[in-house]
Amino acid sequence: MVRRRAGDAGGAPDVLDVSERFWSSGGERLDVDGAVLVRNPAAPGHPSGTFLTAVRTGSAEQLDRVLARCHDLVEGGCRRVVVDAATPPVVAAHLAVEDWTPTTQLHLVLPATAAVPAAGIAPRPLSTDEDWARATELFRADHLEEDARHVRSARPAAATAAAVALRRSLTPAATWFAVERDGGFVAMVAAWAGDGGTGVVEDVFVRPDARHAGLARELLRFAVGQARAGGAGPVLIGAETDDTPKHLYARFGFRPAAVGHSWVRGT
Length: 267
Prior knowledge:
Layout: H1 15-24, E1 28-31, E2 36-39, E3 51-53, H2 60-73, E4 80-83, H3 89-97, E5 101-110, E6 124-125, H4 129-149, H5 157-169, E7 174-181, E8 184-192, E9 199-206, H6 215-229, E10 235-239, H7 245-252, E11 255-264
Parallel strand pairs: 9-10
Antiparallel strand pairs: 1-2, 2-3, 4-11, 5-10, 5-11, 6-7, 7-8, 8-9
């Protein structure tokens, strides 16, 4: 399947391509016998940074060979396989037999024509080791809240550390910002201007004790402004299909565009 690059004349951005390029921007792409392995040395075990995509294997046996090759190239192997309209059905079928878990991600796009007021806050960019250590506390709170909502065991702290390492590897192309109050971080957001005309907003999180005061909306205004100042027109954001932030994003003006599908193991 040939995807049009986001921002090309004549159509809307391919949001799945934009999202993939965002998460793979800190790594490398390797052709692996009928698939592409995205490998991020900063977080080799994190499924958002190291994954298989463009999978075109025509049999279960060929897919097993690809996965075995990934074990040779990445410590612990590949934990996520992205499927799209051109992925042969046998891929998902075989992963299901092998007890991989299907996952979905909702992608929404704020049109380039959507006017967004200037933010009333000025989060500061993360730059130092201390900044990232404090941000890790927010990521940890986010992860624990998410695990509790899904009624599952809390992921280990090492998984949170890998998620933070992955994001830090995406800088300086993308920038993470934090809102600081009383000497601590209470909220964060990330912005990426993109490389094809479509930006990305990620990791909108407000600490529970700072919620219900409009801070999340201000973070969205700020991050969209940052992406557009860097040259973006439309702006992409992702949300879990079963979580409430998707409603906030829709009210803000983001429009549902696509649902991405993956299979993961080890979660």
